[in-house]
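Just curious. Protein, please.
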Amino acid sequence: MKTIGQGLVNNGNYIGEDLFRISTISTVRLDSFVTSQGLLASSAINELMMGRYAGRGGVTKAIPCFQITPQSVPNVSKEAMLDSVTFEFHFTGKFWGDSVNYEIQEFELWQLKSLPELDYEHNGYFYNTSPVDLDSCIGKVRFIPKRQYINNARFRLKDGAGQIGRVLFDKMRFREDDNIFEVSSSSSAPFLKFLNFFKGVAILPGEHTNCLMSIDAAPDSLYMQFHYREGTANQKLAFKLAQREYQYNQIMTDRAETPFAGLEKQENEATFAKSNNMALTQGLSGYMIKMVLPIVPQYPSYSTIIKAQIEIPVKYESWNPIPPAAKINVYMTDNLNTILSPLQNNSNTAVTGVLEINDQSPELSRYLFDVTEYYQNQAELPMVNEPQKVLLSVPNLTLSYDYMIMQEEARVRFYYANYKQ
């Protein structure tokens, strides 16, 4: 204990400080998480992740899977001549990877072998672990990872007899032979026959791709475009993103040769000490940090906690292409590492951690979590014998690759005052 801030309290009250180290720390991993809107959603998921990145937690790969359909029955003359077929995607600006060394990134567009199967018993949800049934690669794109190059990038579909772009174009020209564009009686899937024929697409990272990025999941941003000529007129026709209930992201992390290789189930834990003095929470990979908070100190009568904060030292690395999370969420948990409710302060506001970067000494940067009201509330209860277990997580687990790495033990700092002498 040490004396601090004597002038901050009126009437000569005494202020003290206590520091408790959090020694029970481990890394856990979510078994799975939802990456689709389901059948009952009131709004669609508006972003998808694609790419691959090798980080401290392993190699994370994100594959978006979705469907496209015509907007109306195509009206293409039999004499029309196909020039090319492209697939357009729009970058939303979220990028994780090296954008300095200009390493070319490659992605592949694959046609699905089967239409994804909706699980009606569970509201039609798809998860990060849901399989992607791939048929064949139908196009590729390569770009330098800079916004101006990504914005101009598009897949060019393979050309030639038997390739899917030409097959679809010929079916538009000769609809009477096998009209896959026939409008169905189903109001939820007007182009059901087309869906059953085409199945859908997925975007895979190339073998040496080392970036993750977000793309806009909207009909005007994700579509297949046919470029063709009718007589002397150049024409375009688009098959756009549709049937959003089938849209999802497969997101998998290969944990081999990492301290977290043994995290097969959510109840498994990789302790801080056995993970080379490291704990990790990171988006997309499902990693979260588990801690056991100290029980509220029992101060003498006429004493009160005036401030309490969790402090997590971090080594801020400005050179690292993957940014640390600006904010960390805190959830209560149990022995099975279930995500329960957010840890709350008295005012029913959730406890969160905020990154405080020390510009002069980056190695002294830290996350601060204000838990004053939480511990004040604990102090008002009868004797508390069971310490609170919590999980630390980055926000937006499904749409962010931000992280927090803990390489030193966390601590809780208490400031208290004696209001009677």
Observations:
- The longest helix spans residues 164-173.
- The chain has a mean pLDDT of 91.
- The longest strand covers residues 58-70.
